[in-house]
Write a structure and sequence with these properties.
- This protein is about 85% helix and about 0% strand.
- It is mostly helical.
């Protein structure tokens, strides 16, 4: 005759072990996910800062080029550098 009671206790013990493992794994995964989210937020802030810096440098480069181009046009108009 099958001993259902011992089978039940055996399966209950295995189930309890599986639940413990799942709880531990879930806790670790939740902690990792939170850390990754915080890291992603920090990375996004860094990227936004770099994009802002890049745009400022592009603008400064364009303004500098415009100054030299406009300066060359002034010299081509016959300017003598202030000795008129």
């Amino acid at each position: 005759m099958t001993d259902f009671k011992s089978m039940y206790y055996h399966l209950a013990g295995r189930t309890a072990t599986a639940v413990d493992v799942l709880e531990a794994t879930t806790s670790i995964m939740e902690a990792n996910a939170k850390a990754m989210m915080a890291s992603a937020e920090a990375t996004m802030a860094s990227v936004e800062s770099l994009v802002s810096l890049k745009e400022k440098l592009k603008l400064a480069q364009q303004e500098t080029e415009d100054m030299f181009i406009n300066g060359d046009e002034d010299d081509a108009d016959g300017g003598t550098g202030g000795n008129t």
